Amino acid sequence: xxxxxGYKANFHTLTRAFDNEQVCxxxxxxxxxxxxxxxxxxxxxxxxxxxxxxxxxxxxxxxYEELDPPMSEEK
Length: 75
Description:
By secondary structure, this protein is α+β, with helices and mostly antiparallel strands. The protein has a domain at 23-72. The chain is 25% helix and 36% strand. It has a three-stranded antiparallel β-sheet with strand order 1-2-3, covered by helices on one side. A hairpin with a 2-residue loop joins strand 2 (36-46) and strand 3. It is globular, with a radius of gyration of 15 Å.
């Protein structure tokens, strides 16, 4: 399965944010579950104010227990 262009673009944007030290870790609330989640955000300046752009939620548990790599998927 190919990676969608939108995911690639977001990854490159996040990479640039790390390179420019314009990234932060922020606690947010999941709108559906109402649970607190840790989110990786890029920081951008909009009209003289900082804006946090969420890119990824971090795992609460062990990601090796929650995910299978693509090569182990059954066909």
